[in-house]
Amino acid sequence: QVQLVESGGGLVQPGGSLRLSCAASGRSFSGYVMGWFRQAPGKEREFVAAINWSGGSTLYADSVKGRFTISRDNAKNTVYLQMNSLKPEDTAVYYCAASSLRGVGGVESDFNSWGQGTQVIVSS
User: Fold this and answer.
1) Largest CA distance in the chain
2) Which residues have a Cβ under 8 Å from the Cβ of 43 and sit 6 or more positions away?
3) Could you tell me how far CA 71 lies from the centroid of its own chain?
4) Which of 14, 28, 50, 53 could form a disulfide with 35 if both were Cys (CB 3.0 to 4.6 A apart)?
């Protein structure tokens, strides 16, 4: 398994931007599909975005499409989530996750390594 540590969360005003980072250590990072999930207070954890090993294939939840961008730098063992035009409903704990499956997907049970999460609060 791979160990994951998220960073970059914080408080931002509506319409603002944040970039989350997830640093990986352990087994070969480039072999994993990477994803971001989030959990808002009182809600189930939900899929946000995923990216394949090369960065050539991505998948987004409809709620973030056009506003969020997932990317990765295999040389730095890091995956990013650029979040623009943030809304109060984006407030959540954001989790980085790794999947050893080949295809890009948003099924939570396909991801077998998880970070501890980073809090994002969108509020004026």
Assistant:
1) 41
2) 92
3) 9
4) 50
* Rounded Cα distance, 86 and 83, in Å: 7
State yes or no: pLDDT of 54 exceeds 80.
Answer: yes
Q: Please, which residues have CB within 8 angstroms of residue 101's CB and are 6 or more apart in sequence?
A: 33, 110
The pLDDT score that the predictor gives to residue 30 is: 83
The amino acid present at 31, given as its one-letter code, is G
Give the H or E element holding residue 21.
strand 18-26
Buried-exposed string 18-46: b where 16+ CB fall within 10 A, e elsewhere: bebbbbbeeeebeebbbbbbbeeeeeebe
CA dihedral 58, 63, 69, 75 (to 10 degrees): -60
* C-alpha span between 14 and 27 (Å, rounded): 38
* Alpha carbons 61 and 37: distance in angstroms, whole number: 10
- Select from 94, 98, 48 the least CA-distant residue to 74: 98
